[in-house]
Amino acid sequence: MADSALNAERPISTVHRQAGEVINRVILWAVFLTLSVICVYPMIWLFLNAFKSTNELFSASWALPETWRWENFTTAWGYGISRYLLNSVIVTVATVTTVLTLSSMAAYALVVMSFPAKAAIYMSILGGMILPPEVSLFPLFKVLAATDLYNTYFALILPNVAFHLPFTTFLIRSYMVGIPPDLREAALVEGASEGLVWRDIYMPLCRPILASAGLIAAMGVWNEFIFALTFVESDSVKTVTIGVMSFAVALRADYGIMMAGLALSILPILATFLILQRQFIGGLTQGAVK
Amino acid sequence: MSYMKIDDVRKSFGRYEALRGVDIDIAKREFVVLLGPSGCGKSTLLRMIAGLESIDSGDLMIDGQRMNNVKSANRGISMVFQSYALYPHKTVRQNMEFGLKVAGLKKPERDAKIAEAARILQLTPLLDRLPRDLSGGQRQRVAIGRAIVREPKVFLFDEPLSNLDAALRMQMRVELARLHRELQATMVYVTHDQVEAMTLADKIVVMRDGLIEQTGNPLEIYRRPVNTFVAGFIGSPTMNLLDARVTSVSERIVRVDAAGLIVDAEIDGEPPIVGERVTLGIRPEHLEGQFGTGSGPSLDVIACERLGGVTHAFTRFSAGIDLTVQIDGELPISPGNTITCTAHPGRAHLFSAETGLRL
């Protein structure tokens, strides 16, 4: 009796569950669709208007360009955006390389070695994450001025390295915890030094997290504004974020060319992100789960 | 003359004493197996020999040299890990080459050694594969190959076969025995599998709670276990250990009665007095079970393990005591049957009921 009642109810509950799943999915898709429109639309708008003249931009800013003015890009390039891009590339590559090297070394030590105050040291590295860059602007400025590093690439590279170390170390450490300690011990028995184990065993195995962490750091450095505004002043070292600003001021009358310049300024990092987005997401979740 | 000597070695992790004074002498070319349950300190001891753990006190000598403070790499040892610890991003060849490169050997020399090891272990066709493309047995052989190329004085194995399935494990046991003969090497092998210990070892060291319980060749340990722990640990199925009472003593022969099972046992030490309580140890294979009424007590069969040639019958006395008996596989026995059993003369062991030590 009880059994047949249960059997009769089962199909109804299944139908309910399936309907619930469909509704859930529809809501989820709707939310994601809205989010992606919000995120992507400004970028599409920027790229479309980069091909327009100023008049056209104002008269029909939502429409496709009447003629595709590629010359906007060449003009913008000629206005000095190339120099800013190069500076950004130099600062980003140098920062990311340094951060990955130092962070992976720190993470290696934190994972495999035992030494006094290990937990405290790790905590103090993580503590760096809560320090907002703004509060250190003035002291950093004084230090950079005193050491003659003001208005050089180092004025951007060193502070950026410092502020990206904590999170990068955190990410790489989380990943290294998952590498079997036997590998290191086997290498040590075979005569390898800790340095060689780091370089020859751990670094190759950490390639996925190095890509993710590197990408995350690269995005941060590329878009970094406040240090770039404060610690350098000449065009020869200005990065693209500040460069674009002065560029915008200079080209107040020609919005099409300004849009082209802006588009150029985000292209490298956008392309890098699109190519490596899988690593980017992987890196974030790895950090989160472990 | 011992080649490797472990002398009163101790190790603590915080308050926990992992090793509480261990002495082992190992001769050149000897195959020594450290055997014991989990947590007995056998792996810790192996890691101390390898230099992966420091030695709190005591001495480790290899080939006449004190090794306590010598770096792993300079101890002349190679280690095969339970997990194999193959470098996942390196090919088989690169895995074997790593240690040789670190040691600064020239390319032709490295190639020659790798080729020789690959020949011995039949790895030649696999040299350019990555570990993930190999089967468990092949990975195991690469791990051994990596140990061989360095031509160590002593090989250390940390439960190397525990990740393999039963058939492969047996095959690798035979391989290891062959390898030991072929390389004429000194080997120290850690396992909790007494079958591996019995089949591979020249010498077994049975450990428990950071101490050595007994050291000896496999048959010696099987035939004359020094206490009830060793008696219960070596042999499969495990030895029956029963409470018994001494009924008569004549010189070295002691007759005991364990709930109706009357057994004569030979003793080495001081004879017990009549009426004293002792522990009787008797292996299932030294009991003779048969249907019908025999001279021994009657036993109720609770469960049977048929192995084909023999059957292990798990039985219970009327008094509620369990007894495992090995019987002929041809006998049509099943749970619910009643059998009787007698002991093979001269195969029983007597232990002190208080200390568990062999009498």
From TrEMBL, chain A:
GO terms for cellular component: plasma membrane. It is a multi-pass membrane protein. SUPFAM superfamilies: MetI-like (SSF161098). Coiled coil: none annotated. The chain crosses the membrane at residues 26-48, 89-112, 119-141, 153-172, 209-232, 255-276. Keywords: Cell inner membrane, Cell membrane, Membrane, Transmembrane, Transmembrane helix, Transport. InterPro entries: MetI-like (IPR000515), MetI-like_sf (IPR035906). Belongs to the binding-protein-dependent transport system permease family. This is sn-glycerol-3-phosphate transport system permease protein UgpE.
TrEMBL record, chain B:
Residues 4-234 form the ABC transporter domain. Keywords: ATP-binding, Cell inner membrane, Cell membrane, Hydrolase, Membrane, Nucleotide-binding, Transport. It comes from the Bacteria. One of its GO terms (cellular component) is maltose transport complex. It holds the Pfam family ABC_tran. GO terms for molecular function: ABC-type maltose transporter activity; ATP binding; ATP hydrolysis activity. SMART domains: AAA (SM00382). Its EC number is 3.6.3.20. NCBIfam families: PRK11650.1 (NF008653). Belongs to the ABC transporter superfamily. This is sn-glycerol-3-phosphate import ATP-binding protein UgpC. It comes from Flavimaricola marinus.
